[in-house]
Q: What sequence folds into this?
């Protein structure tokens, strides 16, 4: 009997050691919530799957969660199917003004940039703010000077403007306020803010979010995406969240509701990732009459995905499979 008890105790101890050991890395991305049209779905699927694989590859090669979320977002900043980097929507002057934020959950450090006009990858500049400055948020000319000092390559602002973004602004200017959506053309659906949440093998959590904002925005408008607690939040003790909103009301609602931080607080209070995400997104929609979407990972790698908009593109990699979807209650999968 004693032998049996000792044997069982050793087994339990062994299981606990394994359990507390290396965390299985995981990454989830989104490509924006909104009234996405049928014609945009394939491009969104392709883009989120490429991005999530880029982020997962970093994790598999020993990269940190920060490396992973940056790589995933960089991939979507190059893709005109998304409203970030190249393909960003335009302000009333016909310019891109991009913003991004990134956060590291080990010690809650963060970096954010806004009003970026001449750089391809706002998320990488935000990461430099996190690693190389005593500050959290740089905007406008200061962000530009900092990026140049750090060796980021300046590009002609026009090189970031897609045909679709130009048409969207023209439609917006011609049709007026009732046509105001993130890309402006209701018939085409949205290009979408992008975001990523990852947990690395050491159990550290990072989150990155990047956007061009909203089509036809006022010059100098700043939305939710670069705001810690609005668009982005990471805390190793709880989890990580990236949010997106798109239709009539835009990031302003996420900003007012501190959506990412609201989800964190609900999880801290004991809710699982999925319930917390659902409750906060629906709560924001009920309170502010606007839609939103969010992706969440708990510190244990549980996934939360919820959107009150018509669609939201998302993908995650777990146990060597890619899961993805864009409709409510849709989960597709394919081998990694
Ligand atoms: N965050 C964007 C904004 O600036 C909207 C979005 O997430 O799609 O309003």
A:
């Amino acid at each position: 009997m004693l032998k049996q008890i000792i044997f069982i105790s050793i087994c339990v101890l062994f299981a606990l050691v394994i359990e507390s050991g290396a965390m299985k890395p995981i990454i989830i991305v989104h490509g924006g919530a909104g009234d996405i049209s049928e014609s945009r779905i394939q491009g969104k699927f392709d883009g989120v799957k490429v991005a999530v694989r880029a982020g997962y590859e970093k994790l598999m090669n020993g990269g940190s969660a920060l490396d992973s979320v940056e790589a995933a977002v960089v991939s979507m900043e190059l893709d005109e199917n998304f409203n970030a980097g190249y393909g960003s929507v335009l302000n009333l002057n016909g310019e891109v003004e991009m913003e991004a934020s990134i956060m590291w959950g080990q010690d809650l450090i963060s970096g954010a940039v806004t009003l970026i006009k001449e750089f391809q990858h706002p998320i990488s500049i935000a990461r430099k703010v996190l690693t190389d400055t005593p500050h959290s948020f740089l905007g406008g000319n200061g962000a530009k000077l900092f990026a140049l000092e750090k060796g980021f390559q300046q590009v002609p602002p026009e090189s970031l403007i897609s045909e679709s973004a130009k048409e969207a602004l023209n439609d917006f200017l011609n049709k007026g306020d009732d046509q105001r959506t993130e890309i402006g053309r209701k018939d085409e659906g949205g290009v979408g803010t992008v975001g990523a949440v990852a947990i690395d093998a050491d159990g550290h959590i990072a989150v990155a979010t990047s956007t061009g904002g909203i089509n036809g925005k006022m010059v100098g408008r700043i939305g939710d995406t670069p705001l810690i607690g609005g668009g982005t939040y990471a805390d190793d003790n709880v989890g990580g969240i990236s949010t997106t909103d798109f239709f009539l009301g835009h990031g302003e609602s996420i900003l007012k509701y501190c959506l990412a931080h609201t989800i964190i607080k609900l999880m801290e209070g004991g809710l699982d990732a999925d319930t917390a995400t659902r409750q906060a997104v629906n709560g924001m929609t009920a309170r502010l009459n606007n839609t939103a979407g969010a992706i969440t990972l708990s510190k244990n790698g549980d996934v939360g995905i919820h959107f009150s908009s018509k669609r939201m593109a998302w993908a995650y990699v777990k146990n060597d499979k890619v899961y993805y979807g864009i409709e409510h209650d849709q989960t597709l999968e394919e081998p990694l």
Summary: Residues 92 and 218 are 6 Å apart (CA to CA).
